[in-house]
């Protein structure tokens, strides 16, 4: 452990604004990327399902 | 060999195999990134000159590596698409671009933030920084070009050509610190020579780099699958795959 206490860890020896903003932006972008990919996947699957369901019910009405 | 390439080029086959591979790369990414972050932030010793601000290296270097590697992957995918007309290669190239742009931004931002305590300035028009900014514009250009055509095939070809031409910038970024006098230091980390850093600083960096690469592979597999669904939504195998799920869902609703 390079720090004696948790508050020292947060302070980063006076470099807190630099270290935490660089790490924060990186973490935020990685998390946002995964979140976006999940939303994208769900929307595409739901869209295809909805279309198939509509086609199914149209076919059902015609019979 | 050719049979394998054609199999790889089949969206249906890729959709199946990528589903199996994906969890392994996600698991590796999470494991490596968590370990590397804890080690780099809390356990690696502070630099004797830069103090704790050097801990920015653990996001700056992996992001810069990935920014360049993704562009090369995009150019290679573009070449494969242009020469062999393999659509999956184009889909992969399409989904790589935004992550590449994000990683270039992370490299530039973390570098700027790091520059304030270390160099006394957040920006200099020196060769390394400028060539990285050009890389960001190249990514944005590739993304914009894809959106600028009504025909998907034209968009794919234009984006492939820009990626293949733009890849010239990668050696310029790499050798910028040797060719010109720059504020940016030469490579502190190479795969071919012994590290100049002590092991307890260098090992977390290796772990972070591997973590970023695993993340890139996992995300590319995931988003290529989505891109396959988007482009092949009217194909029979997609209908069958999803229809089965719809039938099941309806069966459950009526039960």
TrEMBL record, chain A:
Transmembrane segments: 20-39
InterPro entries: Haem_export_protD_CcmD (IPR007078), Heme_exporter_D (IPR052075)
GO biological process: cytochrome c biosynthetic process; cytochrome complex assembly; heme transport
Subcellular location: Cell inner membrane
Topology of the protein relative to the lipid bilayer: Single-pass membrane protein
Keyword Transport: yes
Keywords from the named record: Cell inner membrane, Cell membrane, Cytochrome c-type biogenesis, Membrane, Transmembrane, Transmembrane helix, Transport
Keyword Transmembrane: yes
Gene Ontology annotations for the cellular component aspect, listed alphabetically: plasma membrane
Superkingdom assignment: Bacteria
Family per similarity comment: Belongs to the CcmD/CycX/HelD family.
Its biological purpose: Required for the export of heme to the periplasm for the biogenesis of c-type cytochromes.
Protein name, UniProt field: Heme exporter protein D
Originating organism: Vreelandella glaciei
Lineage: Bacteria, Pseudomonadati, Pseudomonadota, Gammaproteobacteria, Oceanospirillales
Automatic annotation (TrEMBL), chain B:
Purpose of the protein: Required for the export of heme to the periplasm for the biogenesis of c-type cytochromes.
Keywords carried by this UniProt record: Cell inner membrane, Cell membrane, Cytochrome c-type biogenesis, Membrane, Transmembrane, Transmembrane helix, Transport
Pfam families: Cytochrom_C_asm
Matches recorded under PANTHER family: CYTOCHROME B_B6 PROTEIN-RELATED, HEME EXPORTER PROTEIN C
Subcellular localization, as worded in the UniProt entry: Cell inner membrane; Membrane
TM annotation in the entry: 21-44, 56-84, 91-117, 129-149, 161-181, 201-221
Occurrences of domain Cytochrome c assembly protein (ranges): 14-184
Topological relation to the membrane, as annotated: Multi-pass membrane protein
Organism expressing this protein natively: Vreelandella glaciei
GO MF annotation, one: heme transmembrane transporter activity
InterPro entries: Cyt_c_assembly, Cyt_c_biogenesis_CcmC, Cyt_c_biogenesis_CcsA/CcmC
GO cellular component terms, A-Z: plasma membrane
Protein name according to UniProt: Heme exporter protein C
Gene name as annotated: ccmC
NCBIfam families named in the record: ccmC
Family membership: Belongs to the CcmC/CycZ/HelC family.
GO biological process: cytochrome complex assembly
């Amino acid at each position: 452990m390079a720090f004696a206490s948790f508050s020292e860890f947060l302070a980063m020896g006076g470099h807190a604004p630099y270290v935490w903003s660089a790490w924060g932006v990186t973490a935020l972008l990685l998390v946002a990327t995964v979140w976006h990919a999940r939303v994208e996947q769900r929307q595409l699957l739901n869209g295809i399902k909805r279309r198939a369901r509509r086609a199914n019910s149209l076919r059902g009405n015609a019979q | 060999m050719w049979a394998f390439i054609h199999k790889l080029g089949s969206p249906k086959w890729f959709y199946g195999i990528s589903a199996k591979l994906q969890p392994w790369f996600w698991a590796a990414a999470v494991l490596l990134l968590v370990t590397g972050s804890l080690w780099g932030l809390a356990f690696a010793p502070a630099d004797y000159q830069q103090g704790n601000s050097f801990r920015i290296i653990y996001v700056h270097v992996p992001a810069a590596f990935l920014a360049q590697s993704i562009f090369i992957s995009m150019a290679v995918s573009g070449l494969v698409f242009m020469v062999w007309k393999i659509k999956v290669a184009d889909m992969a190239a399409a989904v790589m671009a935004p992550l590449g742009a994000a990683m270039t931004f992370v490299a530039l931002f973390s570098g700027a933030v790091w520059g304030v305590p270390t160099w006394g300035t957040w920006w200099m028009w020196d060769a390394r920084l400028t060539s990285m900014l050009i890389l960001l514009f190249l990514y944005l250009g590739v993304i914009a070009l894809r959106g600028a055509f009504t025909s998907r095939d034209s968009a794919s070809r234009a984006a492939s050509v820009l990626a293949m031409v733009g890849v010239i910038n990668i050696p310029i970024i790499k050798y910028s610190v040797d060719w010109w006098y720059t504020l940016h230091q030469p490579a502190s980390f190479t795969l071919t020579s012994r590290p100049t850093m002590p092991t307890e600083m260098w090992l977390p960096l290796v772990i972070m780099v591997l973590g970023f690469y695993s993340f890139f592979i996992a995300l590319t597999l995931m988003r290529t699958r989505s891109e396959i669904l988007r482009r092949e939504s009217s194909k029979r195998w997609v209908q069958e795959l999803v229809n089965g799920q719809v039938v099941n869902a309806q069966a459950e609703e009526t039960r």
